[in-house]
Amino acid sequence: METSKFTTSKQKVVIICGPTGVGKTAFAIKLALKFGAEIINSDSMQIYKHMDIGTAKPTPEELSLVPHSLIDIVTPDQPFDAAMFSNRAAQEEERLRNLGKNVFMVGGTGLYIRAFLNGLFRSEPAEDIVLEKLRAEAETVGSAILHERLKNIDQPASEKIHPNDTFRIIRALEHHEKTGRPISESWEDHGFRESRYDYLKICLGIDRADLYERINRRVEIMIQEGLPDEVKKLLEMGYRRDLKPMKSIGYRHMCEFLAGEVDFDKSIEILKQDTRRYAKRQLTWFRHEPNAIWLAPKEIEKASELISKFLN
User: Fold this and answer.
1) Is domain 12-121+193-311 given the CATH code 3.40.50.300 in the classification?
2) pTM (predicted TM-score)
3) CA within 20 to 30 Å of 265's CA: 28, 153, 256, 279, which one?
4) Which tens digits make up the pLDDT trace of 194-216?
């Protein structure tokens, strides 16, 4: 008798992912209600307290319908990374399973989802001297120059790392200098590691032009809801502009506006453009993810059939 591809002793998790603005939250809540599931957040910005509007957190009404975990768990000045997420998410999965709940993981941070499913690849400890040298160089010449260097030695990594992402650029260059091996090869090797869970991964996608229009509208709504005031309050609370979450999309743009570096209309224009570019990078990431099933947000019934088959 042929064994079903869903037959496994591993715990089952439904993953719902996709680019920003595509409609993951509403889609996931409808399905979570149907299957008695609770949601583990896998958006790397929604973990931060006091950052609500710019991260598009679920509304209080949505949270009352389906409980979400790993939202509002650290302040903007506390360190948090994919490894920490992986550990916390595994604990949440176990807690929900012990309560008899089905587990949905929902979000757009591909690295967090991968870390949860597969763990993070282990490499040699970072070389502090090399890191300091690269950091000093980044401050002198800028991240774009280092990104060009990365492109020359590791094209695949340069395509996944944004030219402004100084942290990941430096990490990739340090990895290459210490090991003599492109960090993308380590990513590729790790990609074939067996998952710790049995998962159904549903990626949401819509026409690119429609997605970009939704993103533009979403930015306008965030402004109407008070994103500038939210950022002003964060600054007044003592959260510096150079903190990692304060340099993220939306928060960085409002910091520049509030500091008088960019006028308001221009900051909104740049914010929309950068959000569209971010969505494009997310789509690139998810298209390279194994075993992903792509659906439109309106295909609730099809998703329901897939989830029912997977869970049963």
Assistant:
1) yes
2) 0.78
3) 279
4) 688 999 999 999 999 999 999 99
Boundaries of CATH 1.10.20.140 in the chain?
128-190
Contact present, 176 and 124 (Cβ < 8 Å): no
pLDDT of 262 strictly over 70: yes
pLDDT at 225 over 50: yes
Percent over 70 (pLDDT), the chain: 92
From the options 2.40.110.10, 1.10.20.140, 3.50.50.60, 3.30.2130.10, give the CATH code of 128-190: 1.10.20.140
**Range 99-123 average pLDDT:** 88
User: The tokens of 33 are what?
Assistant: 């209600």
pLDDT digits (tens, 9 = 90+) for 61-102: 999 999 999 999 999 999 998 889 999 999 999 999 999 999
How many CB atoms neighbour CB 193 within 10 A? 13
Residue 210 phi/psi, 5° resolution? -65, -40
